Amino acid sequence: MTREEVFDAWAPGNVEWSAWAKPSLFAQWPDTVTPSTTGAPDSHDYLWLPSATGRTAIVVDLPAVESVRTGIALARRGYRPVPLYNTSYGPSPVVEIVPLILELARGAIDLQTRMLAPNAPPAFLLDANRLRPGVAPSPGKFDNRWVVFPQDFPSATLLRARGVADVLLIHAGGTGTRSVQEDLAHVLLRWQQAGIRMTAASPTDSGVRDLIVTPPSWFRRAWYRMITVARLRRNNAGGFGAVIPVRSGGHYGYG
Q1: I need a labelling partner for 231 at 20 to 30 A (CA). Which of 47, 114, 149, 192 fits?
Q2: Cα→Cα distances 152→15, 22, 85, 167, Å
Q3: Domain residue ranges of the chain, discontinuous segments joined by +
């Protein structure tokens, strides 16, 4: 499959939610990707999920491959998976993404055969390891850690205008008030304050639980985005990722 075919499978042009799909990772792939079509373990079926009527939108914050497989499982339930992996690939990356690339290509084959409605409710896909590098960031490494901002998601006003009244977070973060990753909490709390009901579940649950999102650091502070971006490395393709230059000293961000 070409990278264009893979991206088109995940972000069809006739789907409103495709506007939020992040193209940066797809744009840096080789011209063609040959995914394996065998050997993928079964994912959870999520048969307990509410039907995809449009009332519920989903955010999936699971490790990369598991996130993609969950997105495909949700597509089988009628939800539109939207990849928000705003990272990139380079030599010696600190966050391993080759398995993510291959799983996205495999998932594209499944999505090409699926007749999802253009107005199917969204399931936004994140990598829970986006700030958990497999190797320590150091000079010469490709620092592709990344974060999400409220601007990476539709506003509460738009969600409500499309009939969304509930947002379900699928993650493995536990049940505590600080179980939501901090960057994502900036998004979910805005929705919660706008009157959207927040719920949560893990992949092994058989139902949802109420979720109360508490204010993260620098919530609604004007300098939050500037400070956060300053600790990471932007890529000229639009996402995050760049080689850490060799320096005599200094701080390299989220260490």
Answers
A1: 192
A2: 17, 9, 10, 16
A3: 3-34+49-243
